[in-house]
Write a structure and sequence with these properties.
3 domains; Oxidized Rhodanese, domain 1; 6-stranded mixed beta sheet; 8-stranded mixed beta sheet; 486 residues; 19 strands; Rossmann fold; globular; 17 helices
């Protein structure tokens, strides 16, 4: 299988030195990702594209995995799964195209699109007309439709090689991860913070995560899962950190000491102070938030300005002018919507009469009543872990058994994301399989038959172990992890 990768259009207009740096980074990223799937994959860098050669003996699952990885890699405008052929004349290319595309246009409308590079005795339009005429005469289509064809035949010509396009797949766009500077994203697990984290990654920013725990282990587990999901799907070429602060005491102190109209703004200011502390530790100059103008009372321009006065870091707000429905739509597209919908809500600092236009001097005065020793103690709860290990050791004080061969009576619960379930269905001959995505298992497990034994399954065994631990903590004893032999 051969794949031609086209650069994000903004990369193509960069100066030669910048373009070279960006394409070198993308080359590294592509090799890093694809060689995990198939070690003998070859990635070739050209000035305007990449060519990827994958051995022909790959199975369908490997092919799908490669296409999915490319679809989720920042820096790619689109890519083409192609059949490369050599030709010496337009008539020869026309016959090759007839043999290759005849069956696909049979009894369908079609259009031919040709892009050409190099010196030839014919133009792109002439090639389109010649190939279209031969197909029209010999392949039994219903006609030519240049606007909305049922089949679009795409051919890219590079000197004496023609690439017959089997499939065109859109990419993420954006810049290759690793060539922009770093940022620290404040993540709560909701729609906004997960989408803002994704958007900075898409622009090539190596994005670390900072979480303020307001409500115990359930909240922390949920946020760790969504952070791991975003990183693993869109940014796994680069190692990032996950930082946690225990902010429950800070919330309690705010509720005790701060005027209700200032609570939301003061909480955000405390979070920014903690983020500043973490960012300095990691030598990061930028903080990312999921705030959008007017979405909640603390997100008016006046309040946002008051909030960020406590930090010297650059504050990026990728969602600042987006509508909530557009944010939710993007969350669905990137796969984080179900996490957000099932995330526990733990914000206790919500006033019935919040101020939408605080005066900075009044907020500063209100904070004089806050015991900053409480914040200092919360800063001392600073915990940092590499994202690839963020799910290790969650509730490790509770043992979870793993088995490789289920008993006939065991019920297997496929806890993978619905996209993964659909792409690679779990098939077992002797066991009942039910599908409950991991972000719903905590709520739905108690409704299952308590007389049965359940085995949680996911591809790598990471999420299944975390969820089984969590269920054990809740008191369920009829749960284990299924690890199928590869």
């Amino acid at each position: 299988m051969k794949i031609v990768v086209k650069l994000f259009h903004e990369i193509a207009i960069k100066s030669r030195p910048v373009r070279k740096l960006l394409t070198k980074q993308l080359h590294y990223n592509l090799e890093s990702l694809l060689k995990r799937i198939r070690s003998d994959t070859k990635v070739y860098r050209h000035w305007d594209r990449f060519e990827i050669k994958v051995p022909e003996d790959i199975c369908d699952d490997t092919r799908r995995n490669i296409i999915e990885q490319l679809s989720n890699t920042p820096g790619i405008e689109f890519f083409l799964v192609v059949e490369p052929v050599h030709f010496s004349s337009l008539s020869e290319l026309t016959q090759i195209a007839l043999e290759y595309f005849a069956q696909s246009v049979n009894q369908k409308t079609f259009a031919v699109r040709v892009k050409r590079k190099g010196k030839h005795s014919f133009s792109s339009i002439e090639a389109e007309r010649e190939i279209g005429s031969v197909l029209m005469l010999n392949a039994h289509p219903t006609g030519v439709d240049l606007k909305q064809p049922e089949v679009e035949i795409s051919i890219e010509i590079d000197n004496e090689t023609a690439y017959l396009v089997k499939e065109k797949v859109p990419g993420l766009g954006g810049y290759p991860l690793g060539k922009q500077e770093q940022a620290l994203s404040l993540i709560s697990g909701g729609y906004d913070s997960s989408v803002s984290s994704f958007l900075t990654m898409r622009r090539g920013v190596k994005t670390h995560f900072c979480f303020f725990n307001l409500g115990g282990s359930a909240h922390e587990i949920g946020v760790k899962q969504v952070a791991y999901y975003i990183w693993n799907k869109y940014a796994s070429t680069h190692k990032v950190k996950f930082i946690t602060f225990d902010f429950e005491p800070v919330v309690a102190e705010i509720l005790k000491s701060i005027d209700p109209s200032f609570m939301g703004v003061v909480l955000k200011r405390m979070m920014f102070r903690a983020a500043e502390y973490a960012a300095k530790d990691l030598a990061i100059e930028t903080v990312v938030t999921g705030e959008a103008i007017g979405q909640v009372s603390s997100q008016t321009l006046t309040n946002l300005n008051a909030i960020q006065q406590v930090t010297d870091r650059l504050v990026l707000r990728p969602l600042v002018a987006m509508d909530k429905q557009d944010i939710i739509k993007l969350a669905k597209e990137i796969g984080t919507d179900e996490f957000a919908a099932n995330m526990p809500e733990y914000c206790g600092v919500i006033s019935s009469k919040p101020s939408t236009k605080v005066k900075l001097e009044k907020v500063v005065a209100a904070e004089n009543d806050f015991d900053f020793d409480v914040l200092e103690k919360s800063l001392n709860t600073f915990r940092l872990v590499s994202i690839e290990k963020v799910l290790d050791g969650v509730d490790t004080d509770t043992e979870v058994d793993s088995i490789t061969t289920p008993n006939f009576s065991d019920v297997v619960i496929d806890i993978r994301h619905p996209e993964e379930q659909e792409k690679n269905p779990l098939q077992l001959l002797n066991n009942e399989i039910i599908k409950i995505p991991f972000y719903s298992i905590s709520k739905r497990f108690e409704d299952l038959d308590s007389e049965k034994n359940y085995l949680l399954y996911c591809d790598k065994g990471v999420m299944s172990k975390v969820q089984a631990h969590h269920l054990k903590i809740q008191g369920f004893t009829n749960v284990k992890v299924l690890k199928l032999a590869v």
